[in-house]
Write a structure and sequence with these properties.
Elements lengths: L1 H4 L11 H35 L4 H66 L3 H25 L11 H17 L54
Protein name: Charged multivesicular body protein 5
Family: Belongs to the SNF7 family.
Keywords: Coiled coil
Length: 231
Amino acid sequence: MKRVFGVKKEKAPAPTVEEATERMNKRGDNVDDKIKKLDAELVRYREQIKRTRPGPAQEAVKARAMRILKQKKLYEGQRDQLYNQTFNLEQVSFATEGIKDAQQTMSAMRAANKELKGTMKTLKIDDIDKMQDEMMDLVDYSNEIQESLGRSYSVPDDIDEDELMGELAALEEDMGSEEVSDGVPAYLQPDTEPEPELNLPTAPSGQTGQPQAQGVDEYGFPAAPRAQVRT
């Protein structure tokens, strides 16, 4: 059967935009190379026309130059067409990439929306308000506990504040009576009583010419008795 009807050939995959753009660029480069070669030939023919005299030889050179110029115009037209096609392919590629980016953005937004909806189902505004009220009650209760623990056991509750103010005023008067000049209390003033003088013997004047008193040494103290030597 395959020999009679043949085998269906598989279709080649369509080229992508990037492949078509690359192919167009290569063709454009080839056309540019051909145009450069024609420009070089035109320069050479122009120099020949300048060097030759008017006549059949010059006309032959001009004919060759006209043929090269027509080829150049043809290649320039092809190059412009290739540039336009390449520009269109680039626009299509840009639009395609934009669509792909939009699809990815939509997929990411759908996933985020689904996740956000699932999260919002677990949160209720009534539960949040209830939790806030409970937190405020706990804070107030904690403050009451701290205030209760901070009370002093030694101070009775039935103390008269007026009586305390009277005692404070009396204490201030007592302290004011002890103050002297310059508003300094007496117990902070320096001691003004003179210290008692010590009666010490006077130091020797150091003069050796004056005779010393009998029974007193050179420092003013009683002289020690000297032992008598027997002969």
